């Protein structure tokens, strides 16, 4: 999806961003994520991001394994992805329907003590400078293996796909869209997020899917959800 502003590198992004902790949510550069915003603190977050003009929200997963029990402020994974609000609609019942377009991944430097109800972090984008270059490293992706495991997954789950659209998609768009839509858990999503390059992300997606299919074949269990 086109964005009205060009982000050429880390210096084009703010050092402090609002973050939206959401388990199982995976946003990747140039990927699109729909969001249904209804909690008051996140409605305020959207309003503030629009008012400030940057229109940016950092998507990040809670790190449940390292969070205090019964905490309303779980620990966060150290890597997330910032997205720009590229579509916004009001529902008429107090909700926002958003679409975020991924810009770049970030590392959390520190979470700030803030007065806002939503959380804010100081972040560093320099570790992921390649994210600012579209289609970086996509020639290294094993597209044939990716399409093969996709076909096996669809068959095992009685699903259909627009193969014409799949076959015409560039490798970056294909890998990132499949990773974001994949039904796997937070750990697998985080591994795909933190992959150093597109080739490695595709390999993780293939490996996780093959393990899921093997489990289903040998045990009769349903695929990972």
From TrEMBL:
A Pfam family name for this chain? LON_substr_bdg
Q: Which domain of life is it from?
A: Bacteria
Q: PROSITE patterns recorded for this chain?
A: LON_N
Signal peptide (residue range): none
Q: Which residues form the Lon N-terminal domain?
A: 17-213
For this protein, the record's SUPFAM superfamilies field holds:
PUA domain-like (SSF88697)
Question: Which InterPro entries does this entry report, sorted A to Z?
Answer: Lon_prtase_N, Lon_prtase_N_sf, PUA-like_sf
PANTHER family, per database record: ATP-DEPENDENT PROTEASE LA (LON) DOMAIN PROTEIN
User: Protein name, please?
Assistant: Lon N-terminal domain-containing protein
Organism (species): Bradyrhizobium stylosanthis
